[in-house]
Amino acid sequence: MPELSALLQDLSTTHGLAQFAAIVLATLAGIATGHLARVALRRNARREGAGAAALDGILMSVAPVTALAVLFAATLLLRKLDPAAVPWMVLALNAATTLLAVRLGVFALSLPFGRDSWLRRHEHTITFVLWVLVCGWVQGWMGFLEETLDAIDLMPGKTRFSLWALLKSIVVVTLFLFVSSLVSRSVERRVMKIDALALSTRLGITKFTYFFLMTLGVLIGVNAAGVDLTALTVLTGAVGIGLGFGLQAIASNFVSGFVLLMDKSIKPGDVISFTGTTGTSTENFGWVQELRGRYVVVRDRDGVETLVPNQNLITTPVINWSYSDRKVRLKLPVRVSYADDPELALQVLVEAATCSPRVLRDPEPVSRLMHFSDHGIDLELRFWIADPQNGVNNVRSDVNRAIWKQFKAAGITIPVAQHDLRMVSTRGGGP
Fold first, then answer.
1. Which of 99, 159, 224, 246 could form a disulfide with 64 if both were Cys (CB 3.0 to 4.6 A apart)?
2. Mean pLDDT of the chain
3. What is the set of domains in the chain, with CATH numbers?
4. pLDDT tens, position by position, 37-78
5. pTM of the predicted model, to two decimals?
6. Distance between CA 163 and CA 404 in Å, rounded?
7. CB–CB of 62/104 below 8 Å?
């Protein structure tokens, strides 16, 4: 490959100017076709599937392919005039080929992440940076940069650690982390499509795979960067002590998260509350949105999302309203007067429960006479619902309103607690 000084000298000749003009023409052709390809990509963004992904790849390679075609045609033409006077064209062909390879490589890496991923959003910037680095490495221009950065010693002494070694370590570790993230995303996509496994099991597998691959990527990346892993013994010991003291709660929540995923006691979509008592209480009532490594996201009826540490769900009583069955029985206590017919009141209660479409007909609502109290006859209406995630107080309100209306229509009264005060005079006790 010609040296840079020879290339600059050749640029002053007639053949050099012709090569420069051909390169400019190829660049303009690539920019023009690239603009048309971006318009077509925006139109294709609404399509899904393998066909849409293949079309995206073809459209993204239009610009470098066009530039390659123009450069190749210009090279053939210039070789007929002077076979030895095309050094700039060879350089441009190598650069265009590298651009095409990098473009397709970045596009292939972005496919598992989807069109809305950060990799697709910054695809042009990543492609440009990688293209410059690869071109410099292919053309042999990275030697000067490596020598310059390697001469800067960051740790003067027995152990030499240059700026080039630092940058190389960062790049290598980042590359391994990126590959690990890519593999874990791919595993997650495949595992989440296995309907035969429970959702909590699928989440456990994906979370474990992600953390395992990321940790493995860091270790392999550090080793590939030339850092001796045995030198990290002191560091790992310090980390272990930190986990035992300062990071005890974080480690406990992390392990508790895996326990919740494995025993399937709580999974996304479950309706839970933290009251510690059963019944119709809805304090801290909500449904599980996500299971994270450190906490569980619980969303209540007000739209507020509470981040509950995993350790709390392990060590404190939790009511899972939909653990094995989403059906929930609600109880409504009602009191009627002794002057009313309790049989009629029990029948009216059952009829009032059917006012709400959320009340199940199987099992059907029932009413019970509980006991005779000081102020009236205590009755209780019991009915089932199958969607507690939509709230329980709203259906209770609907049934209570229906009970009030039908009691008024049937002439049944709800007594008010009252006390009779009797004044008794004693003999010789008054004035």
1. 99
2. 75
3. 4-140 (no CATH), 173-254 (no CATH), 266-316 (2.30.30.60), 328-410 (3.30.70.100)
4. 777 766 666 666 666 667 666 777 777 888 888 878 877 777
5. 0.41
6. 81
7. no
